[in-house]
Amino acid sequence: MIRTITLIAALLCTSIYSETAIHSLDSSSTDSAWTVRNANGSIEVPAVVPGGIYTDLRAAGVLTQDIYYRFNDINYRWVSRENWTYSRNFIVEEEFIQMDQIFLVFHGVDTVASVYLNDKHIGNTDNMFVRYSFPVKSVVQRGENRLEVRFESSITAAEQQYQKQALTYPVLPTCVPDEYRGECHVNHLRKMQASFSWDWGPAFPSAGLWKKVVLYAFVSDVAILQEVTASAKLIDNTWLLQIGIFLEAGKDILQISGKFEAILELDVIPVTEEAVLLPNEPGQFNTTLYMQIPKDKVELWWPNELGSQKLYNLSVRVKDNNDYIYGQMSLKIGFRTIELVQEPVESGEGLTFYIKINNVPIFSKGSNWIPSHVLPEKSADPDIIYTLLSSAKAAHMNMLRVWGGGMYESDLFYQLADELGILIWQDFMFACSLYPTNSEFLQSVKKEVTQQVRRLHHHPSVVIWAGNNENEAALRDNWYGSSSRFDLYKADYIKLYVDTIRPVVLAEDSTRPYIVSSPTNGIESEREGYIAENPYSSLYGDVHYYNYIADAWNPNNYPNTRFASEYGFQSFPSLKSLSEVSIPSDLIMQSAFIDHRQHHPGGNSELRLEILQHLQLRNYETPEEEFPTFIYFAQINQAMSIKTATEFYRRGRSLLTSDGQGVTMGALYWQLNDIWQGASWSSLEFGGKWKMLHYFARNFFAPALVSPSVTTDGDLQIHLISDYLEDKETMLRVSVYRWNSLDPVHQRSSAHTLHNASVTKVFSGNLQTYLNNAGCEQNAVKSCFLHFSLFSENGDNISPDNFLFPGSLKELTDFEAATITIKSVTPGREANTFEITIETNRVALFVWLEASDIPGEFSDNGFLLITQTWKVEFNAKEEVTSEQLKGNITIISLADTY
Ligand code: BMA
User: Fold this and answer.
1) What is the pLDDT of residue 784?
2) Which residues are catalytic?
3) Which CATH superfamily is domain 20-214 in?
């Protein structure tokens, strides 16, 4: 064995150990630079690694505008039809060459590429979710080396795969709808499925090295430490921490011996194992350490609002027999148990479907996550990820579903989810498609799933693995014309999600549940052969529900379900966001631009019809005049619809109908964030600005909520919803107002116990009678509305106030524009926070404050104003003075638009 002290000075990012050397080939290593060129050499520009072709061409000025500007998704599509070659030179010193094994490791290649080192073909890539390792000892040379990664256009590659497959039978769908302005056959590639377009996003089928590239060298009896996994199981009074250590060496290395050590930052004894490891497959070595930790030494990890998110450092070190440390990794881990409970529902049909953490049933509140940018290299921007995840937490969310058409997110994403207490439902990256099952595809998927499960394994936030998005439903309901070959496609479905992915997940991770699809009936789908008769059954599993025709403000139009994992309505982002990528004449509903940004077939007409059900869109003289109101109305409609649905699902927690429906334990609306500036279902705009829906979410997801509703029989019902784990004594105040007065016509208070982790009905009675008794006349539904507050024993608000409008907002009596002014803006207690006092002369509805030039959030927005003065806070993201803020705020309320 050769033991050299490696000193590869400027070349090496890290070269700590005598037995290994690491040479980064990212752009940060400056011995040479990356360049990228197209096939005929007409374009050659500097490149950045990690990065991607669109970013490089933009930086070089080949693309002269922001890629999201106007129609650039189409104008710049040529980029994705080219075959690009990324290349660089690098210098390798003698000491490095002397090592026994040398590997070139690509942590993320997007997507179909051939890799050449010194003009020798060293391997191919075809899965952007896989880390590739190529042995290059025989190819790498002292002095200058040349690395080339030759990408094939992913559009062409997908088409070719499709054609090849279609010789036996086509894998459907043959393309996305025209309205997506997208590309076809992405299902044949292991690439972010939404990169070929989606119903909320553009096609930018990128190419590039989107994660780091590293050259590793090491001696023959050691290996690269690739992954460390950790999961804790509670057995009686002891946590059994299972630590997996995964190493990689050359295929010809028959054994490695060493000492494997794990240290937890608690005063428990470190575990050390001396072992000789044999490969479990050529070049792959692993071992497992077990640590026992008495239960009382550990503080539990809890989801947001149910406790703290205590994390502990776990360090793992790998040494050779001479105690040289040649690999080490540190993880932050948490101690919690997780169960997906699918048990018979008491005195009803079907099974429950909910998460239990630390033995506590959790009502999952949250949303669905899509990639924060269409370019993978931009999707992990720390500021944006932090902004989006902390906005989720601010809205009382405790779960996000990382949806299967995007990406396995960055390490930072999951780390923040751990810290913020946001449970992650992790789909595997398959969505809205059938998929090939040839052996290369399945092999690649196996590798992808193995690597991703190992990478995400130690995160306490990750609680569910799910095979795919909507593919069980797609097959059952013949979305893509597969029904004539149902058995064939069903067999493929089972081959992929049940026979390939599931065993890998279960072997790698015995602590978390795997469900095959979403929506699914869970165990019941499995019993029915994986494609249930009705994957949308309200008696089992989760449900996705979309209905753009029924009155979305009427709770009686939503299905009872065990778990609502998707439901949503579209809106447009703010004028500010749209203006950033358009010219003024684009900003009308009738423009080619607005049509272009609407990918959901019929979306803009649907949106108009939804709005017209509830709000009075008057005849504007010009489309320019209508546009801001349309956006405002679309956001009101979205906020009110999702509020209605979410409160319905939350009230369903303690409901069990005579036919066994109810016991709802999840409400994840579609969708949290945006990929660009366009029509979508999101509550956060591209960049993180809150739409009205996100402000509403902060209210409707609050741990304690007073929730009024009207039954189909016209009864007013008032429910108290609590996610708290202990009972609380409360005082409920119901007020009735006329639209024309800031003084209530009626007010009544009553004491109630807010029962822990449940929903209590505290009132039920005819609404019309209630209003009449309150002093509202015959047409009460037009002239009056109800307002609800819930106070704790000491008189503090314990729940956000809530409201109920008994009649249509299009036909209100005495509903006139209020004059709302800003009385003062004063600095708040913390830097860049401000207290804004506003004044009104009348009741005002959906009061919307806009500080369009100053990024930040208000403490409330889109609210019902029933007092003469009202205070809201503003949390600015930039330094700003009170005067600047005051000068920038505009205020609008519903009656202004009538
Ligand atoms: C569901 C999701 C997404 C889609 C959304 C809105 O189908 O899984 O595929 O964007 O609805 O249509």
Assistant:
1) 97
2) 470, 566
3) Galactose-binding domain-like (2.60.120.260)
